[in-house]
Amino acid sequence: MIADIISLPFMQHAFLAALLAALCCGVMGTLVVANRMVFLAGGAAHAAYGGVGLAYFLILPVLPVTVAFTVAAALCMAALTRRRVEDTDTVIGVLWAAGMAFGIILLDVTPGYKPDLMSYLFGSIITVPVADLYALAALAVVLSAVTLRHYNGFVAMAFDREFAAVRGAPVGMLHYLLTALAAVTVVLLIRVAGLILVIALLSVAPSLALRRTASMGRAMLLATALNVFFCLAGLALAYGCDLTSGAAIIAVAAATYFLSLLPGLRGLGHGA
Amino acid sequence: MTQPVVDIRDLTFSYNGQAALSGVDLAVAPGERLAVLGPNGGGKTTLLKLILGILRPSSGSIAVFGEEPGRNSRCIGYVPQRLEGAAARKDLPIRVLEVTLMGMLAPGRHGFRYSRQEIRKAEEALARVEMHAFKDRRFCDLSGGQQQRTLIARALVSDPELLILDEPTANIDPQGKFCLYEVLSRIGQGVTSLVVSHDMSILAAGVTAVACVNGRVLHAPEPRLTKEMVDLLYGVHSHSCPMDAFLRRMPPDLAAIAPPERR
Fold first, then answer.
1. Chain B: nearest CA to A264, how far in angstroms?
2. Does some domain include residue B174?
């Protein structure tokens, strides 16, 4: 059966997309979870609808406009929440809703053919086009390079932002950089994997990995490995039982997450 | 006269329109070990954050090593009162050694590796606070006192010329054999230091001067509280108030509790 699956070109693309998504989400998700930015990533993902609406309204290519719009919205959230951390939830909630509404209103006032907004943002990993694989590969390279270059700064920022700033680390720049990267990651991956799957890959594996490792770097590697496992097991399950691929992957991830909460398994691998 | 390490002149700081500190004049001489005393909410931490450049004064001037605060961060070792959330979080995989190495962060520093020499220095700093045996443990798995000692090592690792500690005795483990006062009196000999506390026992940590902060700042160049300082800290009470009777026995000769070699 495995040979059957591997020989199908669309499954090969799906596996490749899954591996790249696993890597991007493993690295980015660890930083996002450690910096308590999962909600911000969710907000950016939904604000992306505003970008799709804007692209249709202005008759411009959808992906570049959506990426630019989402990064701008995410940077807005980052700027508004940087000084007053206690307002973070509210600001993100408002921009989350406002972004989506903006997109829908723009589509309403755009004459002619109205695309289904959902189809643009809820992609399917089984039907991933080759062009998106290249975009994902580029994203993986950029994320890895930026993380390696700013690793110590990101870790210090997650641990003690004020001290990092006192030591002269560029905390403000890193905060915006991380937010922008999270936004780009979310938008690109939504097209490939769908919104819900992206949030799952960004949050489940990293939160499992953070509790079981001794450094952020190892947490990124473990999160990537877990994501690869979720994706491959989920795709096999989807193929074997004829299920929706994204949902099958999330089912595997969620099952693993809840299993890990069982009392006997809780401390498993702790401090590894 | 040599240039003061910290030189504050006629400084005012307002927060939401309310003056938290006003009319502050304070000069900290090189090598001075200053205890900063005051009640909670009196402005002690605000004063430290102004010196560190985290906050900006509303009016007046402040110079650290003759420059604007924040420019000389390399020369300053800082121990915050508590970590905003990070200490309470159990899911941040950062080892004690890595926390200590954060003390060597600097502008323009990139990459993810620390040099062998830096790691050796971090291990030495951990040894000074008797935390070397814990260097590979996760910071979040430590007790409050062990976390506090790790943060002190993080401040010491860069060989600071000015050491700023905010309530370093707040998290001492009650039954710990480790004595923070002893370590505080040992570390930073010859280094200028500011130790903030709401607890007068900090005067036992070998300080050479006292500043009292409660909206205003009063400074004495010896570890002894003046009558005026006691009034600032505890308020003026009527003769019928039991606090007045208590305070009239003050100020105690706090020089008497300084370590013998400093008398």
1. 18
2. yes
